[in-house]
Design a protein that fits this description.
single chain; 5 strands; two-stranded antiparallel ribbon; 3-stranded antiparallel beta sheet; 4 helices; alpha+beta; 19% helix
Length: 93
């Protein structure tokens, strides 16, 4: 299942998507430590699996909280996506 965290407004869609089927296979959840803004947390989903999620207080301002890792030009790889060895994390913008 894919969990979408974020929002949509007049300027665009700002979502971080976590493919929980891939996230379940991760042993270390490196995204939690890799994110400089500490957006990620580990939760137990409805199926009793431990998966990454975006903390509730960041979901409605995700565009701004992710801004430090997303410069306008020459964008380096995102730390959360690089740390996610199963490739479960994507950003919509």
């Amino acid at each position: 299942m894919k969990a979408n965290y974020g929002y949509m407004d007049g300027s665009g869609e700002y979502f971080i998507t976590i493919d929980t089927d891939l996230c379940i296979d991760c042993d270390h959840h490196g995204c939690v430590d890799a994110c400089p803004e500490k957006l990620f947390e580990i939760i137990t989903d409805d199926y009793d699996d431990e998966v990454s999620a975006i903390k509730e207080d960041h979901r409605k301002k995700i565009k701004y909280d992710c801004a430090a890792c997303k410069p306008a030009g020459d964008r380096p790889p995102l730390p959360c996506a690089e740390a996610c060895t199963p490739g479960a994390i994507t950003h919509s913008w």
